[in-house]
Specification:
heterodimer; A: 192 residues; mainly alpha; 2 domains; 9 helices; 74% helix; 0% strand; B: 794 residues; alpha+beta; Penicillin-binding protein 1b fold; Penicillin binding protein transpeptidase fold; five-stranded mixed sheet; disordered C terminus
Chain lengths: 192, 794
Amino acid sequence: MIAIRDRSRLAARRRGTLTSLLGLVLPPIALLALLFVAGCATFGQPGRDEFVDPIRVSDAAQTGDPARRASIRLVLQGLDADTDGHTERAQGSYERAIQVDPTNPYAYLALARHYLDGYQAERALPLLDQAAALFEAEGMREPRVGVHLIGLRGRAMHASGQAADAIIYLDRAAELAPRIWGDGYLAPEELR
Amino acid sequence: MVRKQTARRRGSGGSRGGGPRETLRWLGRGLAIVAFVSGVWLSSWILRLDRVVAERFEGRTFNVPSKVYSAPLIVYPGMDWQRIDLRGWLVRLSYREAVRGGPLEAGRYTWRPGELRVHLRAFDHPLRPEPARDLALRLGQGVIQEIVEVRTGESVDVVVLEPEPVSAFLGSDREQRDLVHLEDLPRHLIAAVYAVEDRRFEEHHGVDLRRVMGAMLVNLRAGRIEQGASTLTQQLVKNFFLTPDRTFNRKLQEVVMALIVEARYEKAEILEAYLNEIYLGQRGATQVHGVGEAARLYFGKSAADLSVSESALLAAIIQSPNGISPHRRPERAVARRDLVLELMRDQGYVSERGYRLALAEPLNVAAVTQDSGEVRYFLDLLSQQLPEVYDETVLASEGLRIYSTIDPRLQRAAARSLRSGLERIEALMGRDPATDAPLQGCLLAMRPQTGELLALVGGRDYGLSQWNRCTQARRQVGSVFKPFVYVAALDRRSGPAVTLASRLVDEPLEVPTIDGVWRPENYDHQFRGDVSVRDALERSLNVPAVRLGQQVGIDRVIAVARALGIRSPLPEVPSLALGTAELSPLEVARAYATLANGGRRPTPRSFVDVVETDGLAHENRPLEGSVPAIDPATAYLAVTLLQGVVDRGTGVRVRSSGMTGPIAGKTGTTDEEFDLWFVGFTPELVAVVWVGFDEPATIGLPSSQGALPIWTDFVRDVTGSHVRGAFPRPSGLEEVAIEPSSGARAMRGCPERQNELFLRGTAPRATCPPGVHPPGDDEQSGVIRRTLRRLFGP
């Protein structure tokens, strides 16, 4: 009997130890889990204090096969030409970039930006959609891509008279990348 | 009174046959009248000739056909230089191999094992000029290893090569010329022409009397015409206004008109007109006129860049461009060139040293390149897409430069593949194209993202038939239409009616129509009972397609076809699902391009810009994106179905030919095998092949043996055996394992499973084994899924 009582006391003591251990370990785990879930839930939607570093075409200069690299090089040439004010030459470069690699999303993005500089929103919008579809298909769905798509779409809306909607887009782009989109404009060198 | 009578007597005596004075008087009067009439006639004749001269000189002096250029060739390290036919490009652009060492001048190249060195000419374009560049291309292992700028030694990432001239809009005279201005021409070219054709041009007034006398003496001595005495002005007049007849009347007109021209115009104007007008040879069936075009024909360069020796050669062949052709009779051409050089030296136009240097220069003429007749089908489409202001007359006379979207490499491959494919089919049919009506075909290629037409061959021989079977002909499309039915059924707007896990019924079917009951059958007249959606399309089964069409509604199928870009009338009948509509290959290409381009519909585009003679781009068609037409996820499902057609179905011959990489396509054979179609695409190219007779007749082959091999031959030629890239997969899809025979979701314990794609939220709920809850049904997993979606995107 004593032995039985001892065993049950021992078991109760063990249960107590386990409970207190769990009591010690579980709260931090739960807290961490909560933080993880909260973090996950807000990932991809930066708050006011979370900025993104938007993509640059030069980031992709060394990626992909030879055709993609040549196409990226032509996009860079186009951005340089746009920076120097040679707009027609720039357009030629973007079109050639698409000729070399018609699935290069950067080429459509840069050409859309170029058209917006020339107040041709109706031409820019389909190119933005094309760029978005190609970026998405390449698995590039993060906000550092999205910020340019949002911002440029805002500019296109503004140019086509949809000022109220445009402000929502431009504000969001400015929220995500204030250094680039704070002025509501994406300069060619900022995309380069 | 007496005096009067006397006078009357004298008069009457004269009239009676009288005195010589009276006769003379009458003769004089007659002569005066004749002279007056002749003078009036002569004056009016000269005035008429003067008007003719003035009209020609002061109106448009020359008709300059508009030239059509290809898209530029872009080269970069890593590119397969043999596939792009770099050597052919050099030849077609009239680049000449340098035969001597030393600095390489523009337009020349050297090709040693492992290295091509080429000095690119500057490309003149108001919007997209390219500078002249001296480049070295290191070649190895079949690809361009490196491109180096010779002057700086720096590596170059990408080089845009000058577009190729592919054809021209010639007028009825079939004359090709490239206008030049006198101030742009080298002095030695003019000197060479003076030296051999008219050394006193600057002195005479249209006719060189000293030379006429000299020629007469020579000809009298010889007893036949050995020497001519026509001045440049006379030659110009003869070419401009007169026939080549050797009659006195014509010669007289020539002399008078030459005098009129000299009286009216400056020597410089006459000389410039002469240098632009003179006939200098043939490029195929096209006449080459003027030193500008001749410089391109023989030396592949601008007339402004001609050397002394080259100038002498052009002047040498004026006498008889075909008899002294540098291409066909080089030895004669060299002998006459040397004679011209000698005359230039004797007349003081070149120094002794210059003469010797020019004499030592080898002939080295550029190869002749002619446009292939097949490109004319593309030109017809191009002229339709140009704004109306550029009508036939303007295109044949205004000297426009039209920069098109055509890829000359693809165009040549398309023409070759179609021609050899049609010959092969005719041989299988046992037909003789010489006696029987020829089998016809169309092959066109388009870039799906931009709608740019890269190649278009609208028939077998443009010379025999200009009917463009790619754009003008509308033929039944057969099973090529079926994917539109499947897209309609897979699209959310129809439910979706089916998913890729659905099973379709392949059993006898009766469809009531206004003409009675219609009983569609499969190609092999067999029924399979129950088939998957993939199987049904891969095997191109008719009955499941008709059922599907009925299920979603023909109006919905038509709406999808319209969204994809079909413009031809579509009959609202059940058999539409089997492709009874008559469509053009161009609109079929556009519809498939929309699928290849993630549901975004491109607009076919054949030109980029038009540059007028003032050097400004007056008509610019910038690249525009495509417009959303159908849901990208649905389009992707259709693409995967069509990949299955090529991987396992009726299009499997594409794979068995050894082609790898992302390829999708669909065969189409109409009733009685009147029309054979194959539409196939890669991520960067859509190509349509149609084969049939203009008057529909049985071919006796399915499309997999008729149209498909032509497509495969073409695409393998332009892309190689391995196609690059991947079809972009959009969001809005989920991949779920299913049990293939039932289409149920495969859970743990299911004996057979394969992954299948679904529009998000449309995966089957029934499970294998039955009764097991699929994941994602409870709230907790939904939270996780949403969280992961936020983390990694939708």
